[in-house]
Amino acid sequence: MQWEGEAIKAINRLPVAKRRKEKARIEAAVLKAGKDIVTLADAATGVQGIVNTATYAADGFRFDVCAGMGECPNRAHRHGDKGGRELSDRVRRLLEAENLGVFLKQSVKGPVRAHHAFRVSFSDCPNACSQPQIRDIGIIAAALPVLTEMACIMCGACENACRENAVWVDADRESSVFDYNRCIACGSCISACPTGKIGAGDSGYRVMIGGKLGRHPRLARELPGIFDAETVMFIIKWCLNAYRQKSTQGRRFADIVAEEGDALVSVLQKAIDNRKQLNTGR
Q1: Fewest Cβ atoms nearer than 10 Å: which of 60, 71, 170, 264?
Q2: pTM for the structure as a whole
Q3: Strands (E), the chain
């Protein structure tokens, strides 16, 4: 069966031991759908949960990125933004430059193990194949929908696209209505709207901190708001500095977040707000 170039790149991100089985499964699904060419969309949806993992034991960190970064049809920024590929590259370069492996060697008595690594995850959509909810820092692309001045034709495409039931067509208002308490800023309704009545408001990244698995698993805590790329980099640098200051004997950043809780998040939030005020001149 023929594979498109980008689909081949996606499947080749798998470990060799798993690649053959997953490739056969994807091809079977494509044949069942009556097609004879595997596209990137087929690979992205057929290989859910697969991530491109940069694991540097000697460098003291692990960085997980969803396999469809910048290309997956589910990505939150597919309506116009270039996606998170550039930002994910910047995050990786930052982690490489931080020399966390040296820090851990100085901090840990005995050999540095895989569980000591500082873990960061990047996902291009809320499907979160790279599991940002269980990493020290998790980053998820986000696009919050808003209504524009364009016409609504009451087609219901936004309702059909939303898996959270966070948008519906109101006949009295002759327009879509959002429940932002349910909305996860995935951008699906933005792409589905045929007239442009639904556009992107805040577009950027959700950030969560303090997740982990292991003996005492814990879901990460989401910081309020949607952040631009520069603020995401600021948050990561801040967290790495806090980690260096507070971690002893290889203690995970997630444990520090759990122990200090609201106090640590409050200090981080103030740092974010101060940076914003400086940048806006207020």
Answers
A1: 170
A2: 0.78
A3: 2-3, 37-38, 51-56, 61-66, 118-123, 137-147, 167-170, 175-178, 198-209, 221-222
